[in-house]
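User: Predict the full complex structure for these chains.
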Amino acid sequence: MHRLPDPELIALARRGSAEAAGVLFDRYWEVAWRASYAVTADRELADDAAQDAVQRAFGALDRFEETRPFGPWLKRIAANRAIDLLRRERRLAPLYEHATACSWDAGAAGESRAVAEAVGSLDPQKRVVVVLRYWLDFSVEEIAGVLGIPVGTVGSRLSRALAELRIVLEDERVV
Amino acid sequence: VSSDLDGRLREASSALGRPDRLVTARARERAVAALPRPNRRRLRLLAGAGVLAALTVGVAAGSLAVADRGQATEAAGLRFVPLEGWFVRQTNTPPTATRPGVAIAANVPLRRSDTVDGFPYSTLRKLPREGIVLVASFMRLGDTRATSQRLPLRLSDATPYIRWGGQVRPGRPLGQYELRALVAGFTVEVQAYFGTSRPSAALFAQAQRRLDRLVSTPEASPPRSPARAETVTLAFQRYWYPPGNYFTMRFYGTISSGETDEYVAVLKKECGASFSTAIAGATTQAGGAWEAVPDRPPGGGEFRAKWNDELSEAVMYRPPMQPWFEKAGRAEFRASVGTYTPPGAKPQSLKGRRIELQRFASGQWVRMQTAKLALWKTGVQRLWAATFTVRAKGLRLRAYVPAATAAPCSAAGASKPLRS
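Assistant: Here is the predicted structure of the two-chain assembly.
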């Protein structure tokens, strides 16, 4: 079962195989969780968002097109759910009520950690745009779609975020 | 932005931690428990067939109205004609003895998976409190002994009814009503669903307005007049799409022939571009009306409908500019605005154009200073900025881009306010 490709696991899971669903879950759960954590920068919110995402994705398996890759689909559901939760928590509110820097519970040391921390120090609106673009590979248009803002605003947030990151990382001699 | 920073950013995602084991175990349980039950869809279809069979038997037993023979020979089906703020999905072919015609109307966008061949389950599961979904199914039946009813149907005749013996959404019950009638030779069954189990009078009135536009369509399309010029029209409506949390647009219009099943494409030309691309399409319904919603929010640009070789008049939508206003020094404030150049479009230059600093006084925004924009940064988009000096403290300030500066691609817009 563990060696079966995704489409076969999906077909079995659709027919009710809990074992196939379990293998599929083991293969992609971390992807979903990390997408949620990247967006929320909050472990508790990420736990909720990722659990909701896998529940929704597995519940909608009968509508999933097997020709598409499962991982990116799940990742998108997780990112969308995380954004919804952030909105509900008003952490994406435009007046920056929650503009305190987040601290990633980073698992690695060194430069990657420094960069991740610099991303985490951005205000939430900029951080989410950077994370969606660079960590989750959303296009600028897709980011505009999920955040409900114009493409131009995504571009300006991205530009400003990158400018800030550049200053911070140059100070720390990372770039 | 250097590619070095790009690369470092992408690598940095590996620095994120991992999920907790307890959370993982809980998520696993939830995922497996959420698997679609293999027989659920089949049961749903069987239940649907059961309802139709029961309906047929009921009619044969004389529980419904007699067919109006005169109308029966004229009508090919029932359709919802377009109505502002409503979304419609309906069968394009007349009903047969085994396959009913279906017309679905909703005041929220219908989910992609909800086709006329099934039950709008996905839309109903997510139906907001103010949401309404009307599902009208109709079949042509033989002689019956009751009298016929005329359109429009009255929702006040409907009775609370839980279809197939189960609530669609047990967690947050819907208001579910059923109305049966015999109209224009068809046995009609209308299921009305409301996002709340106790719909208000206003919601009922809204549903009735939609039901008023359920019409019977003629058997054959009217002959086309060769002398009449072929035209197609396009208009649009912006609306908030709650599931996606964004504004999008609904395009609608008519074709002059009034024919059904004609394909109309919606074309968009980006501001400054020399070509158009298709962003949505639809087939015409009763009276030649059409409506289409693009897959993603289309943003600003010039829109036209295309039907065969005919193009509609161009309709422009210019989104408001969204300047950014921030503190840049002790008494300095920077106002900046971005211009994004879509592929194939000519870059828009704001060099030398004016941007205003406004302050809030006596209940309104008044101009305080004006400055000329200059290119500040280039990247994913070009940023144009101007600096203002304000020494007074406690003023409520904002940046404002006048219409002349924003033209031709955008409309005037203001930043979020800031206190000096």
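Residues 39-74, 142-147, 219-228 of chain B have pLDDT under 50 and may be disordered.
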